[in-house]
Each structure stands twice: as structure tokens, then as C-alpha cells.
Amino acid sequence: MSASQALGAASDLGQGGCRRAWVELLAGRVKRQKLGPEGEQKVRESAVRLLRSHLNLGDLVLEVEGPPGKQLCLSRLIDYDGPGAHIDLSSSLIGSALRDQAAQLGVPAAVLSARVASGLVRVCEADAVPPPKVLLTPDQRKKLSSLFEIAQNLLAQSMFSRLSFCQELWKVQNSLLLEAVWRLHVQSIVSLQELLESHADSQAVVAWLSRDLRLLCEQTEAPCKHADVARAMLADFVQMLVSRGFQKNADVRGTVDPEWMSQVAVAVLERMLASALEALAAGIQEGSAAHKAVSCWFGVFSGHMYGSIISTESPKRFFCHTLTQILTHKPVLKVSDAVQMQREWSFARTPPLLSGLYRRLFVILSPEELVGHLQEVLETQEVNWQHVLSCVSTLVICLPDAQQLVNDWVSRLLTHAFESCDLDSMVLAFLVARQAALEGPAAFPSYAAWFQAAFGSARGFHGSSKKALVFLFKFLSDLVPFEAPRYLQVHILHPPLVPSKYRTLLTDYVALARTRLADLKVSVENMGLYEDLSSAGDVTEPRCQAAQDVEKAIMVFEHTGKIPAAVLEASIFRRSYYLSHFLPALLTPRVLPRVPDSRAALIESLRRADKIPPSLYSTYRQACSTVGEKKPEDAASQREVEPSCKEEPLGLLTTALRELRASVTDPTQRDALLAQMAVISEQLRSALGLGEDDSDFEGAPVQLSVRAPKLQPWEQRVVDLLLTSFCQNLMAASSVAPPDRQGPWAAHFVRTLCRRRLLPALLSRLCQLLHHQGPSLSASHVVGLAALAVHLGESRSALPEVHVGPPTPARGLPVPELFDILLPCRTQESSALCLKFCTAAISYSLCKFSPQSRDISYSCLSPGLIKKFQFMVFRWFSEARDPPSWEDPASSPWRPLCLPSVDWQRAALCLWKQRTLRELLKQEGLHLTYRDWLQLELEIQPEVDSLSDTERQDFHQWAIHQHFLPAPSATGGCDGDLEVACATLVDVLMDFCQSSRSYDHSENSDLVLGGCTGNRDIFSRLQEMAADLEQGPAPLGHAAPRGHFLFGVFCRRLQALARGWDVASRLQRQQELLMCKRILLGLPPSVLVGSPRLEQLAAPDCDDFFHLVNSELRNFSHDGALTHDITAHFFRGLLNACSRSRDPSLAADLTLTACQTQCPLLLTSALLWWPHLEPELHRRWRRCSQSPLPAELRRLQEARHFARSVLSPLAAPPTPGPAWLCAAALHFVIRRAGKESIRWELGQLDGQGEELLVFLFFFSLMGLLSSHLTPQKPLDVCAEVLGCLQRKRVSWLPLFQLTETDAGLGRTLLRLAPDHQVRLLPLAFYSLLSYFDEDALLQEDAFLHVAVNMYLKLVGLFVAGETGAVWTLAHGGDLQAQGDPVSLITNARLFLLQSIPRCPKRSFSDVAELLGASADCDPEVRAALLSRQQAVLDPDLYQAPRLF
């Protein structure tokens, strides 16, 4: 009998007409009879004989349980020894039966058992109903489980042939379910490899397995209870196929050729990928079975799928092979098709399944390997250009360093192309560069920028030879028929740099490109000013583009205040577009605002620059007037229609932001994050009408007005949508994971917001929210905006500076420092917001960045925010002023901020106790110093402070005396030096007032120090500390006392200011001096006058104050006197100091005597204010002494009395003291009397001495010069004094020759006049020209020198513009009031030219010195002087010749 016949007989054995099941046969024998040992043995033997003679092995193997509801079965009947014995006994019984049958049939028992076990197909067929499936039902799994256990036992007894079993299975492969095959593999009965190798037809194996794997993918994604089984099956099959198909060393243990198995595995994987790619190309719908199957198969490329494969080489080879197959799948498109269609293959337009597959393939390959593989495939095989370029887009978007990677790749391609004239490399370089540029400048430079960088300079790739130039233009010319208009425009407007001798190559190409554009009905001349050349999209209609250009031009004009360069260039070089499209769009009729806005200002600037034709402007104004007469409802209806076209992009953006939430909160979807951000970027670009190059800031700063931030309503809607989404996403992500485990979504989100047009709107909205609406923000808003600020700081290197307007200094700020300005601490509400924001920002930064990347967190946060947090914690929480108790390091400061109701106090204190914060504060520039504390405390407005007056004073005392004063200077303290603390406070106070004066909102000048709010309590602390210093112990020893620290601060600050005669410099110095004076007036007068020691008869120390008066205050004095307040303060200090001296009268006399030579301005000031000063001096002197006033004070009293007597009818007494002092008193009395003529008073001075008249003339000159600065008319008084001097033959010319080197009275007089008035002496000299006694002057030796010197200086003043400024200031622009500067110089010049020939010889002795010092003086005056000088030196040249 043959083997097949034997197997058939075994199958049919025992079958009869009335066949009964084993259970039925034994149904009536349930009740056992009690037998003895011999009886039991006899029954067993009888049962075995019965089974052997009537056994059907196939039915026996499959019969594992009885009919439903019955408990009789084989296993129970033979289960007599325990719960696990029945399988072994059943297997033993079946094994015994198999041996008997095999012996009877003459076949091996292993082959017979394999044939019997193949009956599992009957189990698979039991539920075989359409549609086709690959998974077992629960009943099938239960039936097969016992069969598999029996098979395992047979294998253990070497009674099972795997090969025979596989061959039997292949005979019924169409009925074989894939899960049954997988379970055979899992339970080590027959491995998948053994099963596949046992089939002779590889094509049939590939077809069967591919079909079942596709079904498995469909059923895996279908909703069912056993999806986990399906995923496990798919993973095992893929792992086996990858390990067998892509292993480096073939496994030689198989029964067939290992190469055959490898080919089968690769073929199956290729067929699965090909079917997925074809489904994608066919356009499958999301949610369909095909879509689910493709998604499931692409999921096998996740890295975790191959964890059980020991070597990573097999998965890497598999991924490379897959990438190659994708790139080469059905290469039907030509290069020309790629050139025309590549804009349709950008990342946003690539099917998400395909881009997701690319991302998974990129994970296992390094960027360099990826680019190298791409280039290898492109060089060696025909490719599918759509897949290649979509792969490039995905690479550019998803890889962090892709820009540099792709740029280097393109550079290598271009270098190779020009070296060997390789057209393929050239094509590939251009396609890759254009594809990368489609993804926006955030990922890759725009095409225009790339093309200009590659070919726009002498270092371009084409600059090596003429051959390279010809190759380039031949390539560009060949592309022309297929090019999009955008690229042609780029090539025309940014052409390659070509040497002049090869210029025809460029002109020929430009002509060809222009012809092509004309065929496409696209005009280069009608291109927009700011048209996006980097986009490969359709060309915008000129009318639409013009509206965008107008909007952009207005924005640039707002930021710069100048007409944009693009507009000026268009008005000259692109006049057609400028006149036909740009101006009509700009001059759209509208209702003109009362206050001109940016559009109106731009139009007016263009009109003044003659860039708008007068007729067009006139028509525009008339049309605006007509529009203003229309009904308001018409205008409203027009405005309502406008944004409707934008609603659709906004809806798409809203949908994209909503979908981002799933990627943020679900860790399994984070690989889709970058793809979703690309979609958001695309929708954002559409919603705002942004260009491809909108991320390029071009170095232009962002202009922002903090006081009144502006943004368009549509921009506000978009920005609010983005900010809301960011805040919601942050809170949702924080509910799932802390910031450090949330992935990079927040950084990518913020990077998307950093666009050239969007960033100003974003910052303006942040200004509105934080600076103006801060108290109304919810906790989630504050936390979200704080995290946003951190990520803006992370991108600070890529962001432009922000120029903020009032109320802040006009200087460029990095974006992180902008938040310092937006979050002031002036009021209780603003302080609370600042504390919340700083707490959230610092907590987020510390939790977001790991300790290894702390440098990043330091750069993300503004030092100002960190210092404000310390300031607010010290101020609000008294427990924070004690030494810190460390928090548990495991506690996160971020956790309290994620609660539904945030306890900000608890959150701030939790952060304060963090060790990580302490480490942060150790960084340089982040610790709160004494200076920082003063600056922040000065901003507090006491009337709306969170602290009461008492609490604020206690806090000040703690901060100054307990915290900062004893702290070392290295940590921002004062080293225990109270003087240093006072000096720093004064310095900060003056800085604060300087800044507040220029932009503070308060104009109340009654407060301390120039109207600065919030500083009166701090100034009180200064007064307290200054009193402590004054009352402190005297310095040890007899060392010379140091000057008062206050004057050192003043001197240092004044030296730092620029010295100049321009108005700006003078006003800045005057402002600084005003603050110095206010601080001095707020401190005890003893600061001005140091107290002498009791044991010494010495004058009080006033040197510092004298120096301040002579060097600074003098230059801002008026008419030879200081203001009353500082004068009175000095004399108060003087009398107080003298009262502590052993001889008060002597101390006062010594000080005032020193004033006559060292600081005479104090004495003249006392004379001016004597009527107000005298009562206070008498009162104070009587407190310290019963004696009369000191002699020098009485001298001042007498000088004042003398001056009053000169104006009285009585005869004037003799001058009581120094002539200059009496002259000053007389000058002040005359001015106060307001006399227009003083001839009678001058007559009273007969016999008083010539010096008195000369000094009176000096003071009159100063009064005359003051009249040019203030509207007064002292010219007549000055002329009368001059006339009196001339009648008495008193020389007055030395007053115009005073220098600092003069001894005696010359230096004293110069110390009485401001420097700028001394500079204006030439003006006074020639203002009196008509009153000169020329004959008398010509006889004076010094006249010519003085007249020429004054004329040269007057010309210098005129050239410097000082004379015109003086006249305009004095006379309100009326240049005829006292003669304009030109007429004054003309008269002076004429006077000189007439006087030079009349001057005596001795007058020309030092003329050469004057002319040498002024080489550029008036040439006619110079010639007259030189001619007259030569005549004096050689008189014979001018004598008549002797002819006979």
C-alpha cells in the first residue's frame, strides 16, 4: 500500500453506516461500577482494544469538547490524576494510536501526525463567511488552542513532521487564515520562515502573503476587540520579513536557498509599499478602508517596531530600500514636468500619509546619510520627481539643521555642474533650491535671495570662465518655456553678475524671458513694489498687488518716518506701475481724519517731494470732500463688506489650530507636530496675505508705541486667535506633562509667529494686554503669555530690535527686554500683574530647560524680569526677607500654576524657595542689587501702593540698613559704607528724574525733584542717611577732610555729559544742574558749607560748592546772579557753620572775603536778593550771636545802600567797598527801577572813581547780552554808560580783552559772567557801534586789535549759527528788532574797512598774529590790514618818485 493510500485509509478507518461519536458511545456509562484491581485492569485492556479498532484520528484530534451544555468529553473521562494530566494522557493516547496506525499503514508516525494535524483547516473553514478575513473568531481560537498543545507534545516526542505539515497546509492555502499561521509561529510549531520556504512557487507565496497582509492592515484599523492581536501579528510578520530580507549574513539553517527567502521577503515588502503608493496616487478618501490600510502599513516604519531585532543594520537597510522604492516608484514625469508642477508638491500639499512616512524614514537615518542616499538614487536611477521633491520639502521642514544641509548639497551640485558642465546636477540643484524655497524663509532662503547669493556676485559659481557663463545662460534659456512667471521675474530683476564683455549673454536671455512673460501676459513693469518673488504661485493682478504695496509702504513709513526707498525707486524706474496702479490705490478717496494718520502723512510727503502730479492730487482732495458728504450708513456698509473675503482663511486657521491641540496633548502624535505647524503657517500666511519671504526682517527694527499701541482690527482677530490657542494648548499640555516633557511644540509655535508683518501686530497686542489691560487677564492668560515671552526670548537672535515710543526712551531693545517696560510696578494692580507674570515666566523657564541647558534659560529671560520678581517678593512677603528655608528639590514650581484656581502667593513663595532659582540668581547680572532696588522703588506711586505708609517705611529701613548696606559690593551691596549708599541713591534718583522728565506721565511739579512721581519717600531716606552722616563721629586723626560725597556725584555726572554750545547740549546740562540744585535744596544747608573745628580759627570749607558755582551754575546764571533759593541756602549754611565756630564773626568774614576772589558770583547774588535775604540773615545771626552782623555782611548791606542812594535825590556817599561790588549793586538797582535813561544817575557818580564806571559798563554789557536771550531793552542804558566813559576819557576796551590768565579783577569779572555771554561779547561790541567816539578810539593802541578780534569772532558766531539763534529767541523771529545779524556784520565790516586806514602805525604791531590765527577771515578785511601793515613797514613804496 502506498503512503497516500495508507493516509487515506487512516482517515476513513472505522467509518460505517451508523457512525456514532465517542461521547455518545460513553453517554450511558457515566456511572462507574466498583471493580477490584483485576477487574479494572481487564476493563482498561478492553477499552484500548476498542479504541484501536474503531479510532478516527482526525476526529479525535479535533474533538476537544462536547456539545453545548454537556460535560462529557474525552478529557474528563481520562482525567483521573489532576488538573493538568489530561493533555499528556490525551497526547499519549493519540501518540499510541498514531504508532498503531503508522505501523498498520507502513508510513512514519511523524508524517501521519502531520497529515492528521492539518485538519486545523476544518476549524478555519467552520466560520468561513464573506468578506475575506485573516483573523480567527473566539470559538476558533478556543478549538485550536488544544490542537496546538497536542502538536507541541507530539513535537516533543519527535512524532511530528513540520515539512509534511507545511505541505499539507499549502494544499488548502485559500482556506488558511493568517492568524492560524501566526499562532503556529508563536507557539513554535511551525515558524513563518519554515512555512514560506516549504512552497516551491515564490510568486504564489508573495501573492498570498501580500494579499493577507493587506487584509490584516484593513482589519487592524477596523474597530474590533482583537485589534491588539492584529497589531502583534503585523509586527511579527514585518520583523520576520525585514530580518530575512535585509540581513547582511544569510541564515544557512533553512531548508532552501537563503537568497530565495530574502527575495520573497523583499518582494512582499515591495508589493505592500507599491500598493500603498498606488492607493495614494489614486486619491483615497480619509476614513476609507484603503486609507486605513495604507495608514496601518506606514505605521510599521515606526522605530519601536524593530526593537526585537538585535542589529540596527537590517532596519536601516530596509528604510533605505523603502526610500529608494518611493523615489523611483513609477517615474513617468519628466524634468520639464517637475519644473512646471513642483509648487504643487510642497509640504503643505503633500498627502499627510506620505509626509508622515518620510518623517519615519528620516528617524533612523542621519541627515548626512539621508542627503547622500538621495543624491545616489538621483544619480543612478530614474525617479518619480513628485516623490523626490515632496521628500525634499519634508526634509526641509522636519530636520532641524536642514537649511544648512540642503544649502551645502545644492552648493556641491552647482560646483560639480559648472566644473564638468553636468546638466543633470544643474537641474537637480535648481529643483532642490526652488523646492526648499517654497517652504518659506524660516526653512530656507527665498528663491530670489538664493539666486542672488549664488550668481549675483563675482564669487558666484558661474564666475570661473566664459564656458561657465555660457553653460548657465544656455540652461536658463532652455528652462524659459517651462518656467513660472515668478522665476523669470527673479532672473530679470536680480540677474547674474556678468562681466561687461559678456553682457550680450545676459541681454539675450533677458530678451527671451521678457518675450515669454509677454506671451504669458505678465508685465515686469507692472510688478508690485513689494511683490513676493520667492513664491512660485500665480502672478497677482496689478490692482490687487497695488493695494498690498500701499499697505506695506504705509507700514514702512510709520516705522521710519521717511518715504520708502521702494516707492522712490518705482517713481523713477517703474513709472508705469507707479502712476497707473500704486498712486490710484494710495489716493483712494476717503473721509480724511482730523488728525492726519500715516496714510495722509505719506501722501503729504510724496506731494512735497513732487512725486504726485498736481492734477491727480487735486482730484483726490475733491473726491475726499465728496466722500465726506455721503451718508454715514453708506460708509459703514462699505466697511462691513471688506473683511468678508477673509473669513474663510480665518476659519481654516481656526481649524488648523484646533487640530494642533491633539498633537500637543497626545504623546503618540507628536511626530505629526511639525507637519501641523507647517499647515498652520500656510493658513496664517493665507489669512494675513503674507509673502513667502515674510520671515526676513532685513534688519528693520519694530516700531511700537507703548502709550497707544495700534493694530488693524483684522490683525487683532488673527493675533487673538493665535494667543488664545497658545494659552489653551499650554494649559492642556501642562495637564498631561510638565514643560520639559511637552516636546518642542511651543518653540515651533512661537517661531511661526515671528514674521515680519505679524511680529509688530503681536507685540502691539501684547502691549495692549499687559500694559493696558493687565488686571483683567485670567490666570491661564498670564501663564500662557509668560511662556510665550520665554520662547520669544529663546528666538531673540533671530528677532529685530524693538524701538518703543513714549513713555520710554527711544532706543532699540531686544524683544525680551520689552516685557520690562510692559510690566511696571507703579500701582498695586500693576505690581500684582508683574509678580504673577514673573513667577510664571521664571517657573516655566526653570522647568522647561534641563540643568545642562541652563544657559538657554538665562538667555530666554530678561534680567529685568528676574530682578522684578526678587523686588516684589521682598516687598510683598515679609517671610522672604528672612534667610531662605530650602524647598524639597522634587517639588516643581510649575505645579501650583496648573491648578484650576492659582494661588499666586503660594506659587511665588514656592519658586522663591527653589534651589534652582538660587543657582540662577548667582549668575552675573541677575541678582537684585541696591541700585536695582532703588530704581524699582522709585517707580512706586505711594498713593496707590499695596503697602501702607508705615509698612513702606519699615520695608525701606529693612532694605537699606539690613539687606543692602551690610551686603558686599560684589553682590550689589554697599560694604557697610553709608556714604556709598547715599551716593548711589543720589545717582539713581537723578537718573530716574532724567528719564521721567522726558517721558513720565505726571506733570505735577510740586513733588520732589522735578515732577517725578513716587520718589518722595526715597528722598526722605536720603535725608535721613545724610543726617546720620553729618551726626556721625568725625574722622580719626588729623587727615585732611574729604569733600562732601554729593559734589563728587555731581562732578562725575556732569563730566560725563557732552560739552558744547548747541542747544541740545546746553539744555541737557541745564536739566542736570537743575536736579543737582533741587537735591541740594532738599538736604541740610550744612552740605554746602562744611563746619570748622572748634579748636581752629578757620573759615568753613566751601571749596566744593565754590567749584560747582564757578564751573557749572555760573553758566546758567542770569545777569550776574544765581537764583534766590540756592543763594539763601548757602547763607543759611554759612551762618549755621559759623555758629559752631569759636568766633562766628571771624569765620563769616573769612568765608565772604574768600568769596571775593574765589566765588564772586555768590556776593553779586546776595546783592540782587538782598531785600529778601536781609531779614533772614538778621534773624539767624541773632540766634548764634548778640554782636552785629559780620563786617563782610555789613559791606554788602552798605553796597546795597549806596546803590539806592545813587537813585535818590540826595548826594551819593562814597563807595563803601570794592568798586565791582558797588557797580553790581548799582546795576541791579537800576534794572529793578526800570529806568530807560540814567544820565542823571551817572552824574551822581562824578568823583566816585573811574573803576566804578568801567565795572558798571561791564554789568551793562552783560545786561545787553541778556537782552538778546530775554525780551528786554537795556541798549540805551549801556550806551549812556559808554558815553559817560568816553566823555571822561576812561578806557573801556580792556573789558573786551579779559582772559582767565588775567590776575586780579579780570578773573573776578569773568567769574561773574556765563561763558556763553562772554562768547557773545562781539555781538555787544558791534551793537554799540553807532555810539562809538571814533576819533577817540582810533587814538588808543588797543582799538584796532580789539575791533578786528571782535569782528573775527562775530563772523565765527554767525558761521556757527549762534547769532541767528540768539536773535530768533530774543525777538520771536523779528530780525528788525535790533538789527539782524547780517546787517550787524555788514556794518561792522564797513566800520573796519573805514577805520583801518586811519589807525596809527603803533596799532599794527600785533595784527599779523590775529591774521595768522584766522586764516579764513574776510578776504577784503584781510587785504586792507595787510596793505596798511605793509605801508607802515615800508613807507618809501608809497612816496612819489623823483624823476629829476
Automatic annotation (TrEMBL):
<dbReference type="InterPro" id="IPR055387">
    <property type="entry name" value="FANCA_arcN"/>
</dbReference>
<dbReference type="GO" id="GO:0008584">
    <property type="term" value="P:male gonad development"/>
</dbReference>
<feature type="domain" description="Fanconi anaemia group A protein N-terminal">
    <location>
        <begin position="169"/>
        <end position="523"/>
    </location>
</feature>
<feature type="domain" description="Fanconi anaemia group A protein helical">
    <location>
        <begin position="544"/>
        <end position="624"/>
    </location>
</feature>
<dbReference type="Pfam" id="PF24781">
    <property type="entry name" value="FANCA_helical"/>
</dbReference>
<dbReference type="GO" id="GO:0005654">
    <property type="term" value="C:nucleoplasm"/>
</dbReference>
<dbReference type="Pfam" id="PF03511">
    <property type="entry name" value="FANCA_CTD"/>
</dbReference>
<feature type="domain" description="Fanconi anaemia group A protein arcN subdomain">
    <location>
        <begin position="648"/>
        <end position="881"/>
    </location>
</feature>
<dbReference type="InterPro" id="IPR055386">
    <property type="entry name" value="FANCA_helical"/>
</dbReference>
<dbReference type="GO" id="GO:0008585">
    <property type="term" value="P:female gonad development"/>
</dbReference>
<dbReference type="GO" id="GO:0000785">
    <property type="term" value="C:chromatin"/>
</dbReference>
<dbReference type="InterPro" id="IPR055277">
    <property type="entry name" value="Fanconi_A_C"/>
</dbReference>
<dbReference type="GO" id="GO:0007140">
    <property type="term" value="P:male meiotic nuclear division"/>
</dbReference>
<protein>
    <submittedName>
        <fullName>FA complementation group A</fullName>
    </submittedName>
</protein>
<dbReference type="InterPro" id="IPR003516">
    <property type="entry name" value="FANCA"/>
</dbReference>
<dbReference type="Pfam" id="PF15865">
    <property type="entry name" value="Fanconi_A_N"/>
</dbReference>
<dbReference type="GO" id="GO:0045589">
    <property type="term" value="P:regulation of regulatory T cell differentiation"/>
</dbReference>
<dbReference type="GO" id="GO:1905936">
    <property type="term" value="P:regulation of germ cell proliferation"/>
</dbReference>
<feature type="domain" description="Fanconi anaemia group A protein C-terminal">
    <location>
        <begin position="1221"/>
        <end position="1420"/>
    </location>
</feature>
<dbReference type="GO" id="GO:2000348">
    <property type="term" value="P:regulation of CD40 signaling pathway"/>
</dbReference>
<dbReference type="InterPro" id="IPR031729">
    <property type="entry name" value="Fanconi_A_N"/>
</dbReference>
<dbReference type="GO" id="GO:0043240">
    <property type="term" value="C:Fanconi anaemia nuclear complex"/>
</dbReference>
<dbReference type="GO" id="GO:0050727">
    <property type="term" value="P:regulation of inflammatory response"/>
</dbReference>
<dbReference type="Pfam" id="PF24783">
    <property type="entry name" value="FANCA_arcN"/>
</dbReference>
<dbReference type="GO" id="GO:0036297">
    <property type="term" value="P:interstrand cross-link repair"/>
</dbReference>
